[in-house]
């Protein structure tokens, strides 16, 4: 391939939109890394309250974006029970991943958190009608291969960190299933509905679900917590970082989709390695570096071969999930006009 041909291909695939998406992705990556660090710090301080950690984030989302919705004085464009389901799966994803820090290292958790990509590819293909090119699938497959190396390390080949690394890995992978469901549901809503409404309702129902689960699972743990300045700062840092992640995330989901959203935040793994080496003073096996390199290559391949996102399947295309929400929106509008 000649230099001119290579330059033409690069210009056709890498434009301002791609660079802007990657920039937003790196902002998301930073806030995700901050969440990972504060969550692992809370675990290292001997506190096991994975649901309570996210409570402040959901409360902030509900208060800030709820105020905007109240100012608009508009009815919900999507029925409340869909948002309840979205909030429920989001809380479960956060719960399982945060709980994994009790058993595994920050590098393992942040790398395996990227298993969300595989589930998102499957779910968007089935429910949103998204079609991916061979190169996009190849890039995503490379990312999954890189994550498999982490499992190899934590299984004992190279020695992963944490008290029970394999248990932590299982919790993370289970959590990624819920994250994928949440990401795909959020992508659908922000592309076809209102971004402010979606973020607000995730906050409202995420907060309500969290309160219910805390009353069942974490009351005893909270009673035994010895609060300190470091612990309070860790909780506040996690809450603020989560608020920014949920605020910026819908922009990426709306402009591109859940797959690129998850691929873009893979670089948070680099920050996890830095934290483990310089803050926790732990050694990082060479397999983690190999895994990170493979994941980054997969991200680059996927990003530069991504096309403009197709519209989410319309009712005429026969997408049942879209038709359900569309029928409900029409019913809501008719009731509003009748009143």
UniProtKB/TrEMBL annotation:
<protein>
    <submittedName>
        <fullName>Putative solute carrier family 35 member SLC35F1/F2/F6</fullName>
    </submittedName>
</protein>
<keyword id="KW-1133">Transmembrane helix</keyword>
<dbReference type="GO" id="GO:0022857">
    <property type="term" value="F:transmembrane transporter activity"/>
</dbReference>
<feature type="transmembrane region" description="Helical">
    <location>
        <begin position="78"/>
        <end position="97"/>
    </location>
</feature>
<keyword id="KW-0813">Transport</keyword>
<feature type="region of interest" description="Disordered">
    <location>
        <begin position="308"/>
        <end position="339"/>
    </location>
</feature>
<dbReference type="InterPro" id="IPR009262">
    <property type="entry name" value="SLC35_F1/F2/F6"/>
</dbReference>
<feature type="transmembrane region" description="Helical">
    <location>
        <begin position="196"/>
        <end position="216"/>
    </location>
</feature>
<feature type="transmembrane region" description="Helical">
    <location>
        <begin position="103"/>
        <end position="127"/>
    </location>
</feature>
<feature type="transmembrane region" description="Helical">
    <location>
        <begin position="231"/>
        <end position="253"/>
    </location>
</feature>
<dbReference type="GO" id="GO:0016020">
    <property type="term" value="C:membrane"/>
</dbReference>
<keyword id="KW-0472">Membrane</keyword>
<feature type="transmembrane region" description="Helical">
    <location>
        <begin position="55"/>
        <end position="71"/>
    </location>
</feature>
<feature type="transmembrane region" description="Helical">
    <location>
        <begin position="20"/>
        <end position="43"/>
    </location>
</feature>
<dbReference type="Pfam" id="PF06027">
    <property type="entry name" value="SLC35F"/>
</dbReference>
<feature type="transmembrane region" description="Helical">
    <location>
        <begin position="165"/>
        <end position="184"/>
    </location>
</feature>
<feature type="transmembrane region" description="Helical">
    <location>
        <begin position="134"/>
        <end position="153"/>
    </location>
</feature>
<comment type="similarity">
    <text>Belongs to the SLC35F solute transporter family.</text>
</comment>
<dbReference type="InterPro" id="IPR037185">
    <property type="entry name" value="EmrE-like"/>
</dbReference>
<dbReference type="InterPro" id="IPR052221">
    <property type="entry name" value="SLC35F_Transporter"/>
</dbReference>
<feature type="transmembrane region" description="Helical">
    <location>
        <begin position="286"/>
        <end position="304"/>
    </location>
</feature>
<keyword id="KW-0812">Transmembrane</keyword>
């Amino acid at each position: 391939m000649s230099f001119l041909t290579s330059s033409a291909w690069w210009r056709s695939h890498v434009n301002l939109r791609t660079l802007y998406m990657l920039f937003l992705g790196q902002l998301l990556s930073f806030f995700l890394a901050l969440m990972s660090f504060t969550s692992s710090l809370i675990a290292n301080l001997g506190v096991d309250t994975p649901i309570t950690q996210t409570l402040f984030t959901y409360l902030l989302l509900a208060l800030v974006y709820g105020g905007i919705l109240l100012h608009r004085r508009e009815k919900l464009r999507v029925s409340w029970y869909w948002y309840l389901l979205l909030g429920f799966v989001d809380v479960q994803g956060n719960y399982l991943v945060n709980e994994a820090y009790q058993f595994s290292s920050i590098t393992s958790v942040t790398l395996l958190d990227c298993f969300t990509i595989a589930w998102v590819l499957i779910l968007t293909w089935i429910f949103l009608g998204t079609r991916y090119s061979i190169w996009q699938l190849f890039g995503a497959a490379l990312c999954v291969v890189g994550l498999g190396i982490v499992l190899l390390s934590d299984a004992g080949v190279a020695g992963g960190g944490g008290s029970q690394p394999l248990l932590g890995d299982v919790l993370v992978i289970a959590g990624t299933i819920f994250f994928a469901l949440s990401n795909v549901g959020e992508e659908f809503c922000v592309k076809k509905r209102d971004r402010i409404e979606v973020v607000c309702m995730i906050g409202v129902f995420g907060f309500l679900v969290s309160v219910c689960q805390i009353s069942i699972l974490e009351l005893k743990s909270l009673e035994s917590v010895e609060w300190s300045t470091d612990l309070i700062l860790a909780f506040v840092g996690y809450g603020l970082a989560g608020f920014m992640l949920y605020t910026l995330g819908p922009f990426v989901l709306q402009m591109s989709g859940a797959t690129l959203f998850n691929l873009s935040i893979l670089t948070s793994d680099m920050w996890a390695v830095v934290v483990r080496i310089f803050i926790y003073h732990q050694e990082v096996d060479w397999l983690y570096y190999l895994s990170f390199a493979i994941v980054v290559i997969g991200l680059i391949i996927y990003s530069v071969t991504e096309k403009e996102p197709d519209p989410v399947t319309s009712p005429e295309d026969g997408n049942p999930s879209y038709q359900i929400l569309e029928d409900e929106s029409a019913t809501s509008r008719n009731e509003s006009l009748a009143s």
